[in-house]
Amino acid sequence: MHMKVRLLCSMVLLLLWPVMAVAQKNSSYDTGYHPTIEAGLVMNSEAAVASAVTSQGYCFGNGLYVGGMTGIVFGSVSEGGGRAQAVPVMGEVKYSFLDCLVSPFVGLRTGMVLDVSSAGVGFVVRPALGVDIGRFAVSVGLNLQTVTYGTGTAGSGGGPFFPGFTPGNTGNSGIYAGLAYSF
C-alpha cells in the first residue's frame, strides 16, 4: 500500500512540476541592476582552463540583460606555451526567452583579455546557449580567443592565435561551460 501512495505522490509532483516552474518568475524579467558570479571552464583537446568572473548589468524587464564582466582566468596558455593568469574584460548581452522559473537563453560576450604574466593582449568572442533555473544559469558555448604579445603572436609565428582549433596548438579557445548565480 505504501508503495502505491509513494508512486501516486511522485506522479502528481512530476505532473505539477511544469506548472510550478511556469508560475514562478525568471529573474531576467525583473527590471533593474543585476550582479552575477560565474565559474566556468574552457575545454579543448589539449587543456582545460578555469575561470571565475562577475557580470554587472541591467535587466530591462523583458528578458534582455546588458552588462559588462571581468574576473580571472586560471592556467590560461601564455607566450611560449607556459601557464598564466589572464583578466577578461567583456561586454555581455543575454536574452532569456520565457518569464518562468526554467527558461532557455542565448548570450554573447565579447571583449579583450589581458595576460597579466606575459603582457599579452587578446580578443575574445563567446557565444552561448543556456538555461536559467531560478537564480542559477547553466550555459555552454564557444570561447574563441586571439592573443598578441610584444614579440609577435603566440602559437602561430605571426598569424591568428586560435589554440584548440589549430592542430598542434594548445590554449584558451574551445568549448565553454559555465554555472552562474544572479543576486
Question: What secondary-structure arrangement, pairings included, does this model have?
Answer:
Blueprint: H1 2-23, E1 32-43, E2 48-59, E3 64-77, E4 83-96, E5 102-115, E6 120-133, E7 136-149, E8 152-153, E9 174-182
Antiparallel strand pairs: 1-2, 1-9, 2-3, 3-4, 4-5, 5-6, 6-7, 7-8, 7-9
How would you explain this protein's 3D organization?
- The chain has 183 residues and is mainly beta.
- It has one helix at 2-23; strands spanning 32-43, 48-59, 64-77, 83-96, 102-115, 120-133, 136-149, 152-153, 174-182.
- It has an eight-stranded antiparallel barrel.
- The longest helix has 22 residues, at 2-23.
- The termini are far apart.
- Residues 152-170 have low confidence and may be disordered.
Reading the helices and strands in chain order gives HEEEEEEEEE
Q: Which stretches of 5+ consecutive residues score pLDDT under 50? A: 152-170
Secondary structural class: mainly beta
Strand order of the largest sheet: 1-2-3-4-5-6-7-9
The helix tally amounts to 1
Tell me how many strands there are: 9
* N-to-C CA distance: 44 Å
Largest sheet: 8 strands, antiparallel, barrel
Q: Roughly what is the average pLDDT, rounded to an integer?
A: 78
Which range best describes the helical content: under 10%, 10-25%, 25-40%, 40-55%, 55-70% or over 70%? 10-25%
Strand content: over 45%
Shape: globular
Q: Any idea what the radius of gyration is? A: 20 Å
